[in-house]
Amino acid sequence: MMGGATEHDEAMRWFLRRAQGGDILVLRASGEDGYNNYMYSELGVDVNSVETIVCHNANSANEPYIHNRIANAEGIWFAGGDQWDYVSFWRGTRIDSLVNIALHERNIVIGGTSAGMAILGGFYFSAQNGTVTSEEALANPYDMLVTVDSTHFLEVDYLEDVVTDTHYDNPVRKGRHLTFMARILTDYGVAPNGIACNEYTAVCINDSGQARVYGDYPNYQEAAFFIQTNCELENFQPETCAAGQPLEWNLDSAALRVCKVWGTNNGANTFDLTDWESDSGGVWENWSVNDQNVIEVAGTQVNCDSVSSSVSSPLVPNSVELLKAYPNPFNPSTTIAFELRRSAEARLVVYDVLGREVARLFDGHLMAGRHDVTWDGSSYSTGLYLIELTVGGQRTVTKALLLK
After folding, report:
1. Taking the model in full, what pTM does it have?
2. In the chain, where are the structural domains located?
3. Which residue among 148, 201, 245, 330 is least enclosed by CB atoms within 10 Å?
């Protein structure tokens, strides 16, 4: 994931090596084929091919040639531009389905810069009504420009509950990003995480959830930011997140816990996305929103394990590491995967789009760790289903599409 300016060469070499000599596909909605020579010959990493496809409208989603190239790519890169083009052209089409199949069945490498990074989170700012500044978002979290979406799109491991943002050197970004997180918490009942990059910074996440940060620090202030709701608080909901009112998310200046990780040329500094606590080379801060300003003060490393089991918070932050269904779309069955940080009582239920319970897949005690539950949809109607995992007081929802 790149912050939106010139790509960091070492980070891009990391990306290309993950393709293991295969074919690289660049998808974009504007621009030219400048990535072709850069990836194929300028970085010194052997790959079989690099091809750029520019999709000018939604009709591109129906092109068999693009379907074929996705199905045969070992790496896919989303360029910058306007993320609403990507969302409106590809969401709910054969393109995003094929990309998700490539991710989960062939373990391809995926990445993007600017708008291409914006679409990688399970939650995303769609920019459906245009971009938004921090000033606008903080003044009214429900401004028509604050389009925070969770409609099923890309399914990237470790990013299921993440909303990203880029160009973080720009002061108009942080406030809007925290507003996105406040909206997710308020609207969806999910304790969100945020990942953001300064413009010349890259975050590279491996199969084990280790995020390596590339940049040119200390020559430049290039960093990535890993932001989470403060799990050490009994109630980490915003004081005010309502239409027509400024966002207030202060909580004694400790509403959010942030690990700022400096990006180096060798990517030596890391952050662990499996626990959202462990880091190497990071600096911890407390962030909050007060009087329409983002306040940043020095903090200490977060410790979610310090939270008492008797806490009666409406949400248990970060108790669920992931919730996904694969393959998705599916026919006739899909596997629902999730991971618990602690042993807990858990309930896994499937609902139709009218909110009617159609299947209860599990209801009982589970140990910490990864769990996989199969749902056989052969006796159900074609359509979209909501899969809800309840752990303690936390509800996490994902979507699955049954096709026949």
Report:
1. 0.79
2. 9-304, 320-402
3. 245
